[in-house]
Design a protein that fits this description.
The protein is an alpha/beta fold. The chain is 20% helix and 27% strand. One of its GO terms (molecular function) is metal ion binding.
Length: 265
């Protein structure tokens, strides 16, 4: 009789879950892919060099990268645990020449190895089914992409509103992925603002508002007292937006979750 018709007794010790490798300190990862997202931003896909499974982590958490000759630096993961890899999106600032981000963008290629820390961080989605408001600027979109992916997969009926501010379409990393994820969430909306739109970009078509993020744009998204707000960007941006939301006296302070990106070398 052919083997696939045979019935065998199953024993608990014959069915084993993957041995997820948790680690402390540093672990070597290999670059599997790199993608130029926009003029100053690159996404790297990393897999463990030892080919062992990754430990569980939460969307929105990050890892630190270490390269000989440079101070380690933390980067948010834009991937989710279901992807089986780490994706990080790195932005190089004009005055970052010589910093780790610039070195990675210039010199880290497919097949290269780099040391990575275990995922950590508390900027993660609340487990409740409450509405979610995501507000980000610049590279602050990275944790939002991971969170959107988690919502689209595990909580597609959750209401989501994303507000994002950047220079223009050439400085909008993960743009296509962000828009596609929003489409997968039925009760969702997205407002994008460009501070310096290009001549071929049109308000109402390519973006929804021009210039600085104003209170009127935030008001519509922040009127539900049950909402959880996730706010990511520079310290100035985060404090500015947080203070506006608190002035509405609608969303409690403990429902506003923030992550500040600090420029380091």
């Amino acid at each position: 009789m052919f083997g696939f018709f045979e019935k065998k007794e199953a024993h608990v010790d014959e069915v084993k879950a993957p041995a997820f490798v948790e680690w402390k300190g540093w672990r070597k990862f290999k670059v599997m892919n790199r993608k130029q997202e926009c003029v100053d931003t690159t996404t790297f896909t990393l897999m463990p060099a030892d080919e062992q499974p990754l430990p569980a982590f939460r969307a929105g958490q990050g890892v630190a990268l270490r390269l000989e000759g440079f101070e380690p630096r933390a980067y948010t993961l834009c991937s989710t645990p279901d992807e089986g890899c780490y994706r990080i999106t790195i932005k190089v600032l004009d005055n970052d020449r010589g910093a780790l981000s610039a070195q990675l963008a210039q010199c880290l290629h497919v097949g290269d190895e780099i040391e990575v820390s275990e995922p950590a961080g508390g900027f993660v989605l609340d487990d409740r089914e409450t509405p979610v408001v995501m507000i980000a600027e610049g590279i602050g979109i990275t944790p939002m992409v991971a969170m959107l992916s988690e919502i689209a997969t595990d909580h597609p009926l959750r209401r989501v509103h994303l507000i994002y501010s950047t220079k223009n379409g050439e400085h909008f990393p993960l743009q296509e992925e962000t828009k596609n994820l929003i489409k997968l969430i039925p009760d969702s909306g997205m407002a994008v603002g460009y501070t310096e739109p290009r001549f071929d970009e049109h308000v109402g078509q390519d973006y929804q508002f021009t210039g600085k993020l104003m209170p009127a744009t935030l008001r519509h998204a922040c009127m539900d007292a049950e909402s959880d707000v996730y706010l990511c960007g520079s310290e100035i941006f985060v404090e500015y937006v947080r203070n506006i939301i608190l002035q509405y006296r609608t969303i409690p302070a403990d429902h506003i979750h923030t992550q500040v990106f600090v420029r380091t070398r």
